[in-house]
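=== RUN LOG ===
request id: a7f3
mode: sequence -> structure
chains: 1
length: 46
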Amino acid sequence: MIDFDEEIKKFKPSLEVEDAEDAIYNNDVPDITDLINKIVEDLSDK
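=== RESULT ===
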């Protein structure tokens, strides 16, 4: 049988999850609303 308490003690978070979290939070890519706002501004300037 699985000893869940023992398994929890051995648990270590996956490095890939931490790397993905950093990439997501540090991502400076504009979203679709930023892009639409930029297009509207460019069109209104002309």
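=== NOTES ===
The chain has one domain: 13-45.
DSSP finds three helices and no strands in the chain.
=== END ===
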